[in-house]
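Take our chain:
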Amino acid sequence: MRILITNDDGVTSEGILTLAKVLSKEHEVAVVAPESERSAASHAITIHFPIWAKKLSICEYASVYSTTGTPADCVKLGVDVLFPDPDVVISGINRGPNLGTDVIYSGTVSGALEGTLYGIPSIAVSSADYLNPNYETAARAIHDFLEKFDLTLIPQYTALNINVPAVPYEKLRGWKVTKQSRRRWKDYFEARTDPFGRTYYWMRGEVIEDDEDPEADYKAIKDNYISVTPVSIFVTDENFIDKLKKLLSAIK
């Protein structure tokens, strides 16, 4: 299998290199990733500046390219130029979870969603603990998944957002299909002063986990299950369509 890997933590991050090492034992792997961290880049692409790509000699088990682009750029460049015709696009392993509203900001998830636009089965994978990620566990889980799951069954324009508990592999309790939860952040800004007396702001936040749905993604993680959530590139609220038509029809 030809596997294109990207991420938003940067090309030299431990997560992406661990995943490439594990998967390269049985597959042909290429890494195309940002030269530095591009977390929370979402689905940004580069259109006003050139994108530079450089082949790196940092591992013997995969072709590795560093680019000046975003995760979505990396997938585009990988598929169109550097590693054509991959069988699957995998974005990760991300440091920290991508649960709830993290999905809309995540460069990791967007890297996978970009793959779906090419009609390629695509997966985003995260180790669900920012402070103490366990990349080996996540990499082994993805290795197992590729062995047992038929990727061709994933609908076009849908990616799988996989979050793996950051625990030893033996403590994983299995896989759970989950829904993107209402897990979200309550943001606030902390005012600080630079050495020249100027005020700047640092965004901070506190996570809110109050979703009552038993299939919420973060609940699976807390129970040491691997969370698998299908996410689509299309975000129309189908449930509101009919009601919105009636509301608009009343506007004269």
Q: What stands out?
A: Helices lie at 14-23, 71-82, 102-105, 107-117, 135-148, 217-222, 241-249. The radius of gyration is 19 Å. The mean pLDDT is 96. The first helix runs from residue 14 to 23.
